[in-house]
Amino acid sequence: MPRPLTMTPQSLSPSRMTTLGMLLGLLVAFCFTFCLGHQNPNEFALTNLEKSSTKEPEKKETIVEEEMDTEVLEVFQPTHEWQALQPGQAVPAGSHVRLNLQTGAREVKLQHEDKLQNNLKGLKKGKRLDINTNTYTSQDLKSALAKFKEGARRESAKEDEARKAEVKRLFRPIEELKKEFNELNVVIETDMQIMVRLINKFNSSSSSLEEKIAALFDLEYYVHQMDNAQDLLSFGGLQVVINGLNSTEPLVKEYAAFVLGAAFSSNPKVQVEAIEGGALQKLLVILATEQPLTAKKKVLFALCSLLRHFPYAQQQFLKLGGLQVLKGLVQEKSTEVLAVRVITLLYDLVTEKQMFAEEEAELTQDVSPEKLQQYRQVHLLPGLREQGWCEITAHLLALPEHDAREKVLQTLGALLATCRDHYRQDPQLSRTLASLQAEYQALATLELQEGEDKGYLRELLGSIDNLLRELR
Ligand SMILES: *[C@@H]1O[C@H](CO)[C@@H](O)[C@H](O)[C@H]1NC(C)=O
Ligand SMILES: *[C@@H]1O[C@H](CO)[C@@H](O)[C@H](O)[C@H]1NC(C)=O
């Protein structure tokens, strides 16, 4: 799905008031101080209407003018649905605007009932068009156009010069405008407030399923930032999302996992709280039960984020029978497409543990003793062997894709110390390795002929050769 950049024109936090928000504001502002007044006056067909000698151009020009009226100066009236915004359309303050990265279209919808009310009030009052307010009403826009037309009609070459100077005066450096935007006396909605709003939306029993999913979808964008994820935790939002994993709606499970995966990512504080909030059990339950593949995919992603660099969670994972659950995923027909992801997770866990074992041997000062102690208590390798993962990993080498094979070969290498005996006694593994060796010898030769002397396929061949040597 495309990742929309979501923002709220009237409620931008300073940090988010960046490129897009600025652009939107500046564009609207410039259209009145610059584009309309300066860029291409003839296009507006306002200068020489009276002097036109033929009827044809006049007609044409009038049409152009009307088009400008409706297209450029129209204030878009959003509804509760996302709708594409046409170039040049102004948006009432308080609308929800996002950039659809797939279509490139800006889309807009109503934000809030209460905000709409405020905005309607603003419309009735007909605020003055001013750089210092970000509310442009259709009345403002029309009167601005009317003034422009008046000015344009009177225009002579001399006046044109004067107007250009005026435009130049109005056309201030972007830095200056930015400063003014920062000083804007508008309601600033911080990331925290946005997250609270989204959580309330999601947590509210009066929200529809679509609204809940949309809230989670938007929330995911915010929790990528470590600080935001920790803020989510501070007001109890994380637990609400974790509880979402219990929903009877598969989509809610899926999008709750989507948010959690982003929130856990390299964020130890959040990872710890999530374990205490029961996230691990819930994730495993989803993986172990009948669920749509899309939900399981995101849940597996969240599980990876939760376990990574967090030995305590890894211990709990093993205690709760996590390896058994992953085995089920790899062996079930409906979920075997997840096998490579599962293998990648196991590979990461194995190498992470090995890395810490090495650090321990070197007695480095960088790692806390508790963490080393915790890694020591992650009894991953015996668990893998006992539960038949030597066999499972060996059989996954039959996968057809190069990158899947690459991952499996890596994992076989990482498990060599644990599974060597098993691998040696597995006739199918030797056959598979031998046939892969032949296949990649041919491919690596072709690769070499194409001028790649350190190619990907040669690397794969190298791993196969190594493995065969080790198993001899
Ligand atoms: C979510 O809703 C429940 C019940 O409606 C309420 O008790 C809880 O405080 C809410 N949580 C948040 C973080 O708003
Ligand atoms: C969520 O579901 C699990 C079982 O899947 C159950 O043990 C737990 O009590 C439920 N939690 C909530 C908050 O409903």
TrEMBL record:
Which SUPFAM superfamilies does the annotation name?
ARM repeat (SSF48371)
**The gene coding this protein:** Sil1
> What are the recorded Gene Ontology BP terms?
protein transport
UniProt entry tagged with the keyword ATP-binding: no
Gene Ontology cellular component?
endoplasmic reticulum lumen
What family is it from? Belongs to the SIL1 family.
Any Pfam family hit: Fes1
Which cell locations does it reside in? Answer: Endoplasmic reticulum lumen
- The protein's name is Nucleotide exchange factor SIL1
Q: Which organism is it from?
A: Octodon degus (Degu)
Quaternary structure note: Interacts with HSPA5.
Q: Does the keyword Transport apply?
A: yes
Top-level taxon of origin: Eukaryota
This chain's function reads: Required for protein translocation and folding in the endoplasmic reticulum (ER). Functions as a nucleotide exchange factor for the ER lumenal chaperone HSPA5.
Gene3D superfamilies linked? Leucine-rich Repeat Variant
Q: Which PANTHER family match?
A: NUCLEOTIDE EXCHANGE FACTOR SIL1, PROTEIN FOLDING REGULATOR
